[in-house]
Amino acid sequence: MGLNERTELLFGSDGMEAIESLQVMIVGIGGVGSNCALSLARSGVGKLILVDYDIVSASNANRQAIAFRSTIGRKKTEVAQELIADINPAAEVVAIDRKILPEDVDWLLGQAGKPDWIIDCSDTITTKVALAKSAEELGIGYVAGMGSGNKFDPLEMEFSDIYDTRICPVCKAVRKAARKEGLQRMQVLYSPEEPIGMTAEDDFARRERRNVGTVAYYPAIMGHLLASYVLRKATGR
């Protein structure tokens, strides 16, 4: 059987056509984003736009789908692009090697074209809100992963509007920034599980912190759930 045959058995021929025509931008190819990107590639998504500026480090190996001893020191977007080509050579992959700040969002969408969906796995609060606001204004589907650090139980994850979230300190910081920008809604995947000793500031960036613990399964599950959300929305499932 080919790559898409078992997926088509589940989604049907019309669903498979919808998946193959999808254009999805993943911002942040870390623990959550790398697992999400490869999940979408295995599902047959037609175009993937990968956005990240960082390199693979040894400490990434406990959670990132692109992190191996052989890939340490290489660009994350480059490694992800190679893996996707090996999984699904029919997929078009655009790699954008750049750190995206709020003022870069217009440039990013101009560079990559208007995707059907943005899956936001970025680390910076203000960038998340800027991406969500642009998606709202342009009619682009949007969903974001919230904090995956210092948490244990993936069964507590749930999809929610940002204004209905609770406990999660990253969500609290995002809510504050979203209200300031007048954002009407923002779909997120988060967990109300109490994190271990974690706080978040307005420009909280996980990669710059040293007290955030992670475990292999948690960001991977979050990434797969984000992929599932977009696939189900795109196919009416």
If you had to describe this structure to a student in words, what would you say it looks like?
The protein is of the alpha/beta class and 237 residues long. The chain has a single domain, classed as NAD(P)-binding Rossmann-like Domain (Rossmann fold). It is 39% helix and 14% strand. The chain has seven helices and seven strands. Strands 3-2-1-4-5-7-6 form a seven-stranded mixed sheet, with helices on both faces. α3 (76-87) links the parallel β2 and β3. The radius of gyration is 17 Å and the shape is globular. The two termini are 23 Å apart.
Q: Which parts are unreliable, with pLDDT below 50 for 5 consecutive residues or more?
A: 202-208
Spatially, the strands of the biggest sheet line up as: 3-2-1-4-5-7-6
Return the CATH architecture. 3-Layer(aba) Sandwich
Number of domains: 1
**Run of helices and strands:** HEHEHEHEHEEHEH
Radius of gyration: 17 Å
Count the E strands: 7
Average pLDDT confidence is 93
Short description:
The protein is an alpha/beta fold and 237 residues long.
Write the layout of secondary structure elements.
Elements (H helix, E strand, L loop, with lengths): L4 H16 L2 E5 L3 H12 L4 E6 L23 H12 L4 E6 L7 H8 L4 E4 L4 H14 L2 E5 L12 E4 L7 H12 L6 E4 L26 H19 L2
Parallel strand pairs: 1-2, 1-4, 2-3, 4-5, 5-7
Antiparallel strand pairs: 6-7
Helix pairs in contact: 2-3, 2-7, 5-6
